[in-house]
Specification:
Strand order of the largest sheet: 2-3-1-4
Shape: rod-shaped
Oligomer: single chain
Number of strands: 7
Largest sheet: 4 strands, antiparallel
Number of helices: 7
Keywords: Coiled coil
Order of helices and strands: HHHEHEEHEHEEEH
Structural class: alpha+beta
């Protein structure tokens, strides 16, 4: 039995040696074959170029140069093959376990390198994310601050806007009062015959004086009148006459006696601003069921309500009266 086991071991060694020799022969066969091919190609090249000596010399020189370049590459290839052959011999001698261990070790190393790379990338991303979160928090704080400032500024703007509205209302009141004050000595006479489109100021004044005398309202002369003129209208017919009197007492006396014109087609009124006249007409016409009378006196619009109580229209209420709907008409569109 010992003899047979020895024979088996010797056969096994011979087989391993033969396998190694076969690998060596396979490794070294390739360079020999390549050299033989190169020799054949060289012979063919020389036979092809035998006709032209000049070209053959140049080609030989190029060929030698190329061979010099190729030789180091072939040497390197041979070295690599020898190294690979030695490693393969070690694998075959040591068995498959070493190959598996080498593969496992390589995989573990690759895994570790990959894990390190991933961890590093994650750390970088976490750092960037932290920076972004800090930036977001800063932006949130800035936005909150800006929102507070915006709210405060809006409140200030609202206050300023309200102040501007108050100032504008006061301005309108002042302008209306100033304009009305400039008309304090004026009266407006309507429906006095208008036959001459070129009627002079004196002619207009004389017609007013005559009307006042004939109706026993006031006995005035040209000395009581500062100026008189017709007011133009669309048709230039039956134009009203504006008379500026020199004395407010004379004006008050005329207005107090104008009721004597009742039944005639002639009317004497205070010379109102456009805004005052508009509001007075609104008070007279828009609420006839609650207001029995409305008039203008000493710079104020007055009216009597359904309880026969006299009230004054304040300038702040002008807009309310203007925006009221006219009777038997649809509301105005904005």
């Amino acid at each position: 039995m010992n003899r047979e086991s020895r024979l088996d071991e010797e056969l096994k060694r011979k087989r391993e040696a033969s396998s190694v020799s076969e690998l060596d022969s396979s490794v070294y066969v390739t360079p020999k074959v390549e050299k033989q091919k190169k020799k054949k190609s060289k012979q063919k090249q020389s036979s092809y170029n035998s006709g032209d000596m000049t070209n053959s010399l140049e080609d030989n020189h190029d060929f030698i140069t190329q061979m010099k370049k190729i030789k180091p590459r072939l040497d390197k290839l041979v070295d690599k093959l020898n190294t690979f052959n030695k490693k393969l011999e070690n694998v075959l001698v040591n068995g498959d376990g070493s190959l598996q261990g080498a593969i496992k070790e390589s995989l573990l190393k690759i895994k570790e390198d990959l894990l390190k790379s991933v961890i590093k990338s994650v750390e970088i991303l976490e750092g960037r994310l932290f920076e972004k979160e800090q930036e977001v928090e800063k932006l949130k704080a800035q936005a909150k601050t800006l929102d507070t400032e915006l709210t405060n500024q809006k409140d200030k703007n609202d206050k300023v806007l309200q102040e501007l509205k108050n100032v504008d209302a006061k301005r309108q009141t002042y302008e209306n009062e100033c304009e009305q004050y400039s008309r304090a000595n004026n009266i407006q006479v309507r429906e006095i015959g208008d036959t001459n489109l070129r009627e002079t100021s004196r002619e207009s004044a004389e017609k007013v004086i005559k009307t006042l005398r004939e109706n026993s309202i006031c006995n005035i002369s040209m000395a009581d009148i500062d100026i008189a003129h017709r007011l133009p209208n669309k048709n230039n017919q039956n134009r009203d006459i504006i008379v500026r009197l020199r004395s407010r007492q004379t004006k008050s006396y005329i207005l107090s006696n104008r009721k004597k014109l009742k039944g005639s087609n002639i009317y004497i009124n205070d010379d109102l601003t456009k805004q005052n006249l508009q509001v007075l007409m609104c008070v007279k016409k828009k609420m006839t069921d609650e207001i029995s009378a409305a008039w203008y006196s000493n710079g104020k619009i007055l009216f009597k309500n359904h309880m026969n109580k006299t009230e004054m229209v304040k300038f702040e209420e002008y807009e309310h009266w203007i925006n009221l709907r006219w009777p038997n008409s649809s509301p105005r569109r904005a």
